């Protein structure tokens, strides 16, 4: 799925590039009112340092062989750089650079494989896209989540910037879908992948990152079959102000139609200050505080603050950048949210819209608003009502599951971001939808995935004799794109 790429919230130019019918991501900078934090590529090159590596401490991966191998090299050499790695294959290439499969040069670490994204800084500076790469690195440095990339190291070598990340041998969900019967995932597989994606988006939002480029091509499958979102160069980094939301009866405790009793989006009370003491000393204390808080300029916030504090109120802390606003024209045509197209400013709700498109594509094998041209697609997104293709009549339970999936998609694909599921209170209301009934959110990472990639033979650490052959690969061989062998099918459970 190709994308169109232009400039971002972080770029100074507004170059324009179109690729009709493509599913490439793109950005056109109209301006952003979000607070954006970016640090430039620092240090002028060379190894990352032990100081830098402190930032990279990843508790949830601390015992992993790949992490330990990197740590040992750093300890022995005082840092890590390109010279410590051997590039084995090109895994893919994107707008910003190439991604290589690589391993450390130390013989004891050959079982540890990494994906290294190599970006030519000079070329990017020329194209005025350097800041996008910087933003991606900044975001990757902050992430520590099972469904998001682990950044093991980042360093510069000459005019190249290198990011060493977890390698995903399972390819992406776009390719995985082509292997499914009818090129569609089963509803249970969709639930699994969508649930993991919800958790990844929830974490990103809490970290002040609006992803903006969700699509099957950017959802990679890790060696254990769980997902990893990739490609953060279109993401928006913004501030998150935790808010306390209150409403009579929890919102979206779905009725038959899956929607809360009223169409009215839940209202948000003003930001809570200070945030941490709220969380530590109990929500009710915060609630009282929030009622006397300052308005953040949001009309709905004022309305909410004047509501009587009813006994029935169920306060809920929302830690998502629901009010971040960017006016960049960013994303992939078929996945663009209406508010992005209209340029009215968008925030984290765009990720819930793209989740709806993503889910639709996984279930039906195509996106909901695709037209004959990009322009038609954009017009459809704005105007065309959502419709679902007819599916072969299924029995009771399957039919019900399908209806619940459709209801979730319909709520995520609400054209008005304020009425969209997740648009006001974020992931909490998405997770409560009946489609996810039975999902134990805390244990999703321990659930058996629908498919687990078998390690392609070419990637299993070769015996010492064969290692020599790898070392002697020609430059041309190393440049060849990595292709899992055709007989390396996924094992289905
Ligand atoms: N961790 C990884 N494991 C395996 N393959 C990867 C990994 N990261 C990236 N790839 C492959 O490399 C390709 C390019 O990566 P990526 O999308 O991050 O680069 P990009 O320059 O940002 O591309 P884009 O133009 O989509 O933004 C991906 O399509 C994917 O096939």
UniProtKB/TrEMBL annotation:
Compositional bias of kind Basic and acidic residues: 474-493
Composition bias, Low complexity: 13-25, 300-317
CDD domains: STKc_phototropin_like
Source organism superkingdom: Eukaryota
Region span, Disordered: 1-25, 291-317, 472-493
Enzyme Commission identifier(s): 2.7.11.1
Signal sequence range: none
Claim: Secreted is one of the keywords in the record: no
Keywords: ATP-binding, Auxin signaling pathway, Developmental protein, Kinase, Nucleotide-binding, Serine/threonine-protein kinase, Transferase
Domain Protein kinase: 85-436
PROSITE patterns: PROTEIN_KINASE_DOM, PROTEIN_KINASE_ST
Catalysis: reaction(s): L-seryl-[protein] + ATP = O-phospho-L-seryl-[protein] + ADP + H(+); L-threonyl-[protein] + ATP = O-phospho-L-threonyl-[protein] + ADP + H(+)
GO molecular function, one term: ATP binding
GO BP annotation list: auxin-activated signaling pathway; plant organ development; post-embryonic development; reproductive structure development; shoot system development
Enzyme's top EC category: transferase
Similarity annotation: Belongs to the protein kinase superfamily. AGC Ser/Thr protein kinase family.
Protein name in UniProt: non-specific serine/threonine protein kinase
């Amino acid at each position: 799925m190709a994308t169109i790429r232009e400039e971002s919230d972080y770029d100074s130019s507004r170059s324009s590039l179109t690729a009709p019918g493509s599913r490439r991501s793109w950005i056109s900078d109209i301006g952003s009112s979000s607070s954006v934090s970016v640090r430039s590529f620092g240090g002028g090159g060379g190894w990352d340092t032990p100081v830098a590596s402190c930032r990279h401490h990843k508790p949830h991966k601390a015992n992993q062989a790949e992490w330990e191998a990197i740590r040992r090299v750093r300890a022995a050499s005082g840092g890590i750089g390109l010279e410590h790695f051997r590039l084995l294959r090109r895994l893919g290439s994107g707008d910003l650079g190439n991604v290589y499969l690589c391993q450390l040069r130390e013989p004891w670490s050959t079982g540890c494989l990494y994906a290294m994204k190599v970006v030519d800084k000079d070329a990017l500076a020329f194209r005025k896209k350097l800041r996008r790469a910087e933003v991606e690195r900044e975001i990757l440095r902050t992430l520590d989540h099972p469904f998001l990339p682990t950044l093991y190291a980042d360093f510069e070598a000459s005019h190249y910037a290198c990011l060493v990340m977890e390698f995903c041998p399972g390819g992406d969900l776009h390719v995985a879908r082509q292997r499914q019967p009818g090129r569609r995932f089963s509803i249970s597989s969709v639930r699994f992948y969508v649930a993991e994606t919800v958790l990844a988006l929830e974490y990103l939002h809490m970290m002040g990152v609006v992803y903006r480029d969700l699509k099957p091509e950017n959802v990679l499958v890790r060696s254990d079959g769980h997902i990893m979102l990739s490609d953060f160069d279109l993401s928006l980094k913004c501030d998150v102000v935790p808010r306390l939301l209150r409403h009579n009866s929890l919102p979206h405790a779905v009725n038959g139609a899956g929607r809360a009793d009223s169409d009215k989006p839940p209202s948000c009370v003003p930001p809570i200050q200070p945030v941490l003491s709220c969380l530590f000393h109990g929500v009710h204390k915060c609630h009282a505080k929030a009622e006397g808080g300052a308005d953040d300029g949001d009309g709905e916030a004022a309305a909410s603050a004047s509501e009587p504090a009813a006994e029935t109120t169920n306060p809920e802390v929302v830690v998502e950048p629901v009010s971040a606003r960017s006016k960049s024209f960013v994303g992939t045509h078929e996945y663009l949210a209406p508010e992005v197209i209209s340029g009215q400013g968008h925030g984290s709700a765009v990720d819930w819209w793209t989740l709806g498109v993503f889910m639709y594509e996984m279930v039906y094998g195509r996106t909901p608003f695709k037209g004959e041209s990009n322009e038609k697609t954009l017009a459809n997104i704005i105007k065309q009502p959502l419709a679902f293709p007819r599916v072969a009549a299924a029995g009771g339970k399957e039919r019900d599951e399908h209806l619940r999936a459709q209801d979730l998609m319909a709520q995520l694909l609400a054209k008005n971001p304020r009425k969209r599921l997740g648009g006001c209170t974020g992931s909490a209301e998405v997770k409560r939808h009946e489609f996810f009934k039975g999902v134990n959110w805390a244990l999703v990472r321990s659930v058996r995935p629908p498919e687990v990639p078998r390690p392609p033979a070419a990637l299993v650490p070769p015996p010492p004799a064969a290692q020599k052959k790898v070392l002697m690969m020609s430059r041309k061989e190393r440049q060849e794109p990595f292709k899992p062998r055709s007989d390396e099918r996924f094992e289905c459970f």
